[in-house]
Structures are given as structure tokens and as C-alpha cells.
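[09:14] KT: can someone run the structure on this one? pasting the chain below
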Amino acid sequence: MINLTNIEKVYRTSSIETLALNNINLNIRKGEFVSIMGPSGCGKSTLLNIMGLLDEPSKGTVELDGQRVSTYRDKELARLRNEKIGFIFQSFHLINDLSVVDNVEIPLLYRSTNGKPRQTYAKEALEKVGLSNRIKHFPKQLSGGQKQRVAIARAIVGQPEIILADEPTGNLDSAMGNEIMNILQTLNNEGATIIMVTHDENMAKRTHRLIRLFDGTQVQ
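[09:31] RB: done, C-alpha cells below
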């Protein structure tokens, strides 16, 4: 499904060159639940951004469903991100001035989905994560765990094939972290391919496969 070959990512300024990823080779199969671990600054989020088509490698090839990503134009990449990939972030990235249901609808706005179906899909996604009783609330009225569930509902509202989760339990206590993992495992059981960055060994053990990075290099 996602194939990375000889991926290198270099960040350059006028005086400094930083090698963030070095010779990464990965194949993520459809339906897998994969975790990525490593110390801070080792390239985990950079790798996730490249797989999510948010960033380009300096060298190497990225293939999605057998097609080289480099062949796509910017508009095509934006469409792929919107239709095939759902993103979950550690710090939620909710819009405080929008209600819960309005936050969840955002990906559908970019698809020009009409208002009534859009709200129906958003409510269905919120029901899936156990927040159907909070649709009119605002983010400031929610706990951290509830905010993350809203973020998950937003990620899945368009029924993406791939979910990329960057430290989805990082800001939560262990009990709420386990609840979020239960939701992710349910989504994976229903067919979603999930790639999760985490610092938590216990969470990583609940996934199918663990990929370790150190200083931008894949550890065998």
C-alpha cells in the first residue's frame, strides 16, 4: 500500500545541513497497524509526514498503491490526502470557535459535500468514537480524551483507507490512552491501515509491527 525506497530527508539552512532520515526502506501493507518508535528528534514525525504526502523526500521514492507519488501534481496530492488519508495529532488541532460537529465536518468541506449529508457523516463518526452526546459542545468544554476522540472522528469522517497518528495518546493519562488505542484497534479491525508514532512501549506492543528509528536511521 505504502512503499518507501531509499528515503533520505535533508533540511538545509544557509549554514547548517541536517540529515533527518537516512536510507529508509519500508513497505506498509494494507490492513496493517504499525507503530514507529525512537527518541525525540530521530525523524519519526518527518517519516510520518512523508508517508502522509505532507512532505517530500530529498532522495528516494514514495509509492502509494503502486504509483509513484512524484508523478502527481499538487492538486492531485491534495485530493489523495483528503480522500485516502486521515491525520490524528498529539495536540488535537481543533478549532476552538467551532462546535464539535463542525470540527469533524472540516475534511468534507474540502470535498464540497453538501450540508445535510456532511452533518450526517460527522454525527456518525462522532457516534463511532462515543461522543454523540457532545456534538454541540466546543473544544474548551471537553477533556483531553474527548478532544482526541473528536480528532479521531475528524480523521475518519471521510472513510480514509489510511490513518496516520502522531503520538495520539501522548497528552493523555494511561486509562484514556487505552481507550484511544481501543478505538484505533477497532478501526484497524474494520479495515483501516494505521501507522502510529508513539513513545509508549505498551501501546506499541498492541500493534502488528514495530519500526524503530535512531538518528534518522531504521534500526533492524
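[09:33] KT: thanks! The chain has one domain: 31-56+74-219.
[09:34] RB: yep, looked fine to me
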